[in-house]
Amino acid sequence: MKNKQQTPKTILVVGGAGYIGSHVVCDLNENGYYVIVYDNLSEGHKEAVCGNDFVCGDINDSSALNEIFENHKIDAVMHFSAYAYVGESVQNPEKYYKNNTAATINLLSAMLKYNVKNFIFSSTCATYGIPIYTPIDEQHPQNPINPYGASKVMVERILSDYGKAYNLKYIALRYFNAAGAHPNGNIGESHKIETHLIPLVLKTLTKEKDSIHIFGTDYETPDGTCIRDYIHVCDLAVAHRNALEMLLSGGESKYINLGTGIGISVKEIIQACEKVTGMKVPAIFADRRPGDPPALVASNNYAKEILNFNPKYNIYDIVETAWVWEKNKKY
Asked: Does the annotation count 148 as an active-site position?
């Protein structure tokens, strides 16, 4: 639904030049919000920021943040400025705790200083660690197995404490596997180091990569490969807007999973890519990687109930939009 207010709400989107952030910004624009994008471009792309106020800056920079809050009446903040490479977080945990946790405290301090009390936080299913059961609901224990997941759990706990002490209202959205690209073809997934399965598969079909490795074919799953829950980035964007509108209308703080509730295996992803493109994927079977759980699938019942969340894109839509983007990347 369009935001029909006479004076548009002003939303500060930190990390709005990144993959998920840019799609959320696009959705907010289409629904009548005034968006300010704040991004240091360490992982994001200026070209992904279409038609918005853009400030190049870091959330560690208190003076730059204070200037934004000083010059604008911010109604809510959406936070996507995290590093998100699991392997790198193991090798360089300091980088992750400094940026993902400590810098988030800096951002929250600026919000509190200027009495901004609505916060949407980009969290992750990595907070759960190795699942005890699937589908994973919000009550599943959080036992992250890497610094990336741990850095997000720390922020969730900080939000809980800040909510009690300072009346901060927040919604932490724990996503599963974001995938796909905007159907308009103008924004999509473009990482300096690509680790996500679907773009890696598609890069073999554009000849950017020679082959794709399938790590593990002996899992206790129907076809022996890992199962994950893939959700289209535009479905994620709508969920973020719904969460924002819930807070702006006085809703309470929540932790909510975002996934489709449908598990898709690595082999099924490859088959979907072959069906959409009409091309054969050069796959190489390899041994398991340590720490990869057999299945990570969300229970999205709570998101359906609380956010009216109904994903509209299926796996073929995800691959189709990703393929269009991969062939015609704009950045």
From this structure: yes
